[in-house]
């Protein structure tokens, strides 16, 4: 082992998984992340600094702090298309995470971070530079989300279907590597469902109150009311009617029963003809992207992909999501296709899959030689991340 390789005190590595909706972070080797908070930050542009009376930006970070309504608080998301876009806000969140959850400084722990498979080289290098130059981490590693989710399920080859807030993605992972040219995305994820609900509420003249937390109120509605039907909407109407409506009360006390519409909204994820909020004839359903992604991999790899579909991401916790996905795939594929859809029944395993994969990876003895050490960074510069973290 060269002296440049971080091979020493692997204990205490930190794993950080930043999604466009939720940030998850904690210590490698633990079962669950210590931190699990909304990625959105509240920014107060001209808050007064009590120490010297000057005015500067104040950042309200973490789910509990952004829930407090404040005049002129702007909600900022530093993640766009699953990549870090606003580096100043990212640093504020990074520092907050160490201070509030790790309770120690970043220079004390090797750090493994997750990234989207399409993260661009300039952003990877910038992140690596910030970590070594500004925060003096002793060692650093960047790993793609779907690879981590596959590891969390104990596999190195799988088709990861990740339904998050901004997208649903189908990513083939083979032998621990993302098959880059086969990564397939659709914009149909949690944010899309919120838009569908807003459209429906407008149509029904339902005003969501309080206005400062419309999205949270709708998320709550989605989790408790929206339901994926077992099969195509048209075919299931009778059985859905038999299920009966669901009663829901909103935070302002308004309450109503929701019948077929709760299935119809979810149907838009599986049949794009049901989309109300936009009309993009090219958008693919969450089941279609699986077949599209698998069609782009080598023909020899396809059976192991169909036989190893792993469903992750919090939007997949939508009632009936994985059962419907399975039915859709089984209906569309030749009967001879060996199909296996794995969706953990333990919600946190789906919500935290890439963090859990990172926690496992960073604590493996065999992984310790893969870290980029501070010395390696100093010798080779920021582009060492492109060589060491595929
Ligand atoms: N129990 C649930 N049922 C349905 N949807 C849920 C549930 N819990 C969370 N969600 C939705 O899942 C989405 C967040 O998913 P996830 O935490 O996987 O996203 P992320 O990784 O932060 O974002 P992205 O993958 O887009 O970068 C949100 O839209 C949220 O409303
Ligand atoms: Mg995600």
Automatic annotation (TrEMBL):
<comment type="similarity">
    <text>Belongs to the actin family.</text>
</comment>
<dbReference type="InterPro" id="IPR004001">
    <property type="entry name" value="Actin_CS"/>
</dbReference>
<dbReference type="InterPro" id="IPR004000">
    <property type="entry name" value="Actin"/>
</dbReference>
<dbReference type="GO" id="GO:0007399">
    <property type="term" value="P:nervous system development"/>
</dbReference>
<dbReference type="Pfam" id="PF00022">
    <property type="entry name" value="Actin"/>
</dbReference>
<dbReference type="InterPro" id="IPR043129">
    <property type="entry name" value="ATPase_NBD"/>
</dbReference>
<dbReference type="GO" id="GO:0016514">
    <property type="term" value="C:SWI/SNF complex"/>
</dbReference>
<dbReference type="GO" id="GO:0006338">
    <property type="term" value="P:chromatin remodeling"/>
</dbReference>
<dbReference type="GO" id="GO:0003682">
    <property type="term" value="F:chromatin binding"/>
</dbReference>
<dbReference type="GO" id="GO:0035267">
    <property type="term" value="C:NuA4 histone acetyltransferase complex"/>
</dbReference>
<protein>
    <submittedName>
        <fullName>Uncharacterized protein</fullName>
    </submittedName>
</protein>
<comment type="function">
    <text>Actins are highly conserved proteins that are involved in various types of cell motility and are ubiquitously expressed in all eukaryotic cells.</text>
</comment>
<dbReference type="GO" id="GO:0006357">
    <property type="term" value="P:regulation of transcription by RNA polymerase II"/>
</dbReference>
